[in-house]
Amino acid sequence: MTPRQNCLACLQRTPPSVFEAALWISAEHDPEFLPSLMTEELDLLQRQLNTALPTLPTAELAQPLLRQLNHMGFQQDDWNPPRPESALLHKIVQRRQGQPLGLALIAMELARRLHIVLEGVNFPGHFLLRVPGADHLLDPCSGRRLYPRDCRELLIRQFGPDMTLRAEHMTRASPLDMLQRMSRNLRHLHLVNDEFMASLKDADRIVELGQATSNDHLARANLYQTLECPQAERFDLERALLLSHDPIQRLKLTERLNQLPPNGALH
Question: What is this structure's pTM?
Answer without folding.
Answer: 0.94
